[in-house]
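WARN no homologs supplied; continuing
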Amino acid sequence: MTSLLNISNVSMCFAHRDVLSDVSFDVAPGERAALLGHNGAGKTTLFRIILGFLNPSAGQITVNGAVPGTAAARNAVSYLPESVSFPKLLTGRETVAFYAKLKGVAPAAVDQVLADVDLTDAADQRCGTYSKGMRQRLGLAQAMLGDPKLLLLDEPTSGLDPLARQRFYHLISKMAERGTAVLLSSHGLSEIEARTDRVAILRKGKLVADAPLTDLQHSANLPLRIRVQADTAHVDTVHQQMGGQRINGATVELECRYPEKMQRLSAISALGPAVRDVEVYPPSLDDIYRHYSAGKETKQ
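OK structure emitted
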């Protein structure tokens, strides 16, 4: 599939300091990619280059085949920063209508995106009365206008309550299903773990990982956890046979590497009625992030 966002060998140097170093990755239409990294890793700089606010020191980026900053690229991309600000005297409806006019989007879309972000009841209130979470939802509403080809999201759930976050990710998934490419930067690893198709990790300006989460889990070779719920009368036997450690009375937890997983599960199955249940926990995105942030590299 042709990439909608193509980042090829991009480097950026400020005052003789490399902020980005030979970064390359793509985001395809309909793909939800997460861009992760510590503060100062280069995420915001990369976003600014994609938006055309900065020119890279080396390499190139194309957005829907166009150079960032050109009219064709600007028409293809929508952006939601971590902190949004709108004219305080305008209402939410007036604000979204203004952006709709700028984008050449039909006025009928205004009410729809306001409803999508659950701001219908507050649409005629002035933005100066909005909470941070409401402003963030209003920002998402303007970003959704016109079904953009590329959606850039920088800490987009900042200020949102748990229910609003769930609704936000549901909307993002719907946009991806319609073909929008999504590049999302967030420190909320647990909330994006099941909501992204691909993970890219920056460390000190270098891309140290770029692959689907399941691939990173295997390539990192981190241990996975197997939790065995034993029959109360046989917990000692299960513990002796399987090793690991006992937790919560009748539960035995052990760790193994991916190549050993099926062998360990087969051994557990052989215990028959001594085992009531088995749960397998692969390395989390938080585990993966810590691993690659420490200096390991995996790019596909």
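Residues 223-282 form a domain with the Alpha-Beta Plaits fold (CATH 3.30.70).
OK
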